[in-house]
User: Fold this.
Amino acid sequence: MAKQRRGLIALVTAIVLLALGAGVGVIVGDALGIRTEPAAAMTPADAVVPEVTEAVLPPEITVAGALKTARLNAARMELADAAESAGGTEGTATITLEISDNGLAQAGEPEVESYRLTGTADDLTVEAADEASAARALYDMASTIRAGRSIAEHLGEDVTARLSLRMVDLGAVGVDADPSEWADGTDYSHASKAFADVILPESPYVDQVALEAAYREFDDFVRHSLANGYNAVAFPGFVEFVTFAGAPGGPVYADGDDHVDRALALRDAFTPLWQRADELGMKVFLRTDMLALTTPLADHLTDRFGSLDTENPEFWQTYTAGLDELYEAVPSLDGVLLRIGEAGAVYDVEGWDVYSALEVTTADAVRAMLDAFTAQAEAAEREVIFRTWSVGVGAVGDMHTNVESYEAVLSGIHSPALIVSTKYTLGDFYTWLPLNDTLEQGDQRRIVEFQSRREFENFGAFPNDLGAEYQWALQTLLAANEHIEGVWTWTQDGGPWRAGPMTLYLKAGFWQLYELNTQLAGALALDPEVDVAQVTAAWAREWFSDDPATVQAIVAAMTHSREAIAQGLYIEPFADQRVFALGLEPPPMMWIFEWDILTGDSAVLDVMYQVVRDATGGDIDAAIAGGAEAVAAAEQMREIVQATDAGTWRDQTLRASFLDTLDYQVDVLQLLAAYREMILAQGQWHDTFAPEALERRDAARDAYVALAASHLEKYEGDLDHPAYNLTAAQLGVERGDRDVAMSWLARALLVLALAWVVIGMLAARTRLIRRPGAAAARLTWLASTRPWRARESTLGMYDLDRWLTLIIPAGLLVATRAVQTSLLSWVELVVIVGAWVMFAIVVRLCVRRRSPWPVIAAVGGVVVLRCIVTLFALSFTGPGGYWFVFWTDPVLRTVYITIAFALFVWVFIAAGWAMSEQVGRRRATGFVLTAVGAGLAVPATAIALIGLEQVLTIWNDQMGLLPWGMARILGITTYLEIPADTAWYAAGLGAVLLVAGVLLSLRWRRADAG
Assistant:
């Protein structure tokens, strides 16, 4: 009866463990959250090549009328410069400015520039609604001259700027073009380090010589941006210019704190820049993350509110008091631009006590912040621009891409001072993403964000004419939402500044290439119906050549630029799907992690293959063909540009730059095409086990390796055309190369492990029992399946058999883990083996003078069974196939986790059951808990002391599960929202288990006596 009762308990326990394992499998699947849905791609018109004719020479121009202001004089100078650059004049013309209400200004919108052009071609009159409109007329004429058209083309027409707010970032103003900072190519900081030469660490805090140079750069940038159609600039900074002298509960800074002197010095230094922008007709918005902090400011807020309590309306009074102070001191400032979605060290400048923190993470916090800032702005007659860009969970986390979340956060906030800024793409600035439909909703004032130097598309180093897409997006959004009143074009910013080509707007590298998108966005903001092909032609004429054939050839080449990028940097069947994982929406270019890191991790590449397979019905050839199509498009661009007459180019250096960048693009796309074929064929092999897929993978692998070597040889150290970071891809290649060998090793180990189990099952009934080791095999089988028999089964055994019960399972465990890691991850081996060693040592200490062999046999037997499960999974196509199933097959993943989890927990149950025959159930439970606690606490403490992020980074580099670049750019713990103290929590849990185990292990005299 006792035997039957124990068997029944074991059966029930097994069922419970399997049920728990299935639950864990479901939880893991839910946590991964891998799913896809079709994306509604944008549908811009096809790029066209307009007919390009000889340029119309401008007349010799005289401007009469109101020219006394700096604003109008700057516009006149731009007109004169355009005429001078035309290479000659034909005839004369007088332009008279008349500023008065001409009936074109819309009621309540005095900032909308509008004018009427009357008179004759040689005697033009600009009837302007205000000074801004008169300046706009002169800038428009300058643009027509640069485009080779007549300044009288709008004669008799009313011209009105469609969007009133047209903002740019700060470009590269104040950024030092120091090649040494770009040379390494691994600086993924998002800090521009603008004005680093201006700002000194100690008194007087400002280098006046550097400040004068920065002022000149800023003046040039503002003039250039005004000429491109813009009228506002986002200037980085806020708390560094504020003393918080009037902050409630102050002072924020104690007497003598150098933060005050620094703030006053920096404010005095930059005020002339802001005033100059105001004089020229450019609004200035201070651009800041929230929370923006200094150490004393953080201490002050924490002391007042107990924490950085961003949901408390009073919390924000400190910041609004700072704005009151700043606006009073600098009337030329027009408002503040707030971002809450990204913050932290990647944006901070080392050695400077101004930093950001990601603390505004709830809808209540956002609403409290905006209520405070907009109330202050209304009272001060300023504006607040709030960016919906945020990354994370909950309503605030996806308000940028989720219409419901947008409403949850912003509905009901109706301040006339509030402007909401949103990227035009449903996510970051990637190709293939749908139009951001959150821009079609809400009754707030809205502006649309564009990016010229596309950070994810090689930082503008490739030709990338976005005119058709920009136009379709803007026209669609304007038709859907009457509250859209502006654009914000990023001329330079976005992503890491020094991990790509050293191109700095207006000052270094081939920045003219992405100037096209800045001009396109500006032109569309003025007139969404503009002919974008003509804008591209005007850009080509302005920067490269006056020759019609050459201009037309450049435009023709640019019509292929989108195909080269859309097909070459993306894998279409994956990119045109919305993919969700880990509670986030990964971007459509996951195989190139973020900028220049060609990834080699299984999570991304396996899921990409799965999406491609499902989208194409298993025909991956179409996806692979996209790479060749992209190469062909880039080669065609190069042929077109190469065929132009070199003598017709205005600057031979620019022609060389154009050809060099096309050579670079062809090289990169050839590299990516080979890699694409390799990873998709590799996924197909793991999926189908087809030998021909493996052969295709190996052939593509050889091609990729050769191209990679050539690419690195050509472009390593080239600051204008930096080599891609191929470290992660090479690690992936090495792991993939080992899959066949590892699968055979797994099969061999599996056969040996199964033989061990079969011998154990049959030994007692056959002559095998007389063979050396057979008794050990029998013992491990009995002890693992019927641990209550472990003690009796060890009696009378030879020492050799006893030691084999330890050696065989331990050796199999190490070998299995080694194969599972492709013999590449010493971190996993150290952690896993270290934990088991600690467990074994503690168990041995606990049993003391009693025989350890019963528990060794029980644990070893279950370990063998657990290894068999893993080896079976590894035996098909190696570790690559193991992880392929994990990421792509939810059913098999759940089955595997169910069995593996059940066996893992059964190890400890079997250990306790085996020992209970010697020390009783309570103390046996205590011994197991003590051993488990030690096995958890010691490795966890070691990891915590080394650093969880560092250990995870090394482990992931060796295993290749998650993107290699994740650790370098964002940090694994940050990206996956793993608390930094997780290892310490695990160590603490281990300590609790250890203490509980020790208490249960002690002899309780009264209970023992009973």
Remarks:
- Confidence is low (pLDDT under 50) at residues 104-110.
- DSSP finds 36 helices and 19 strands in the chain.
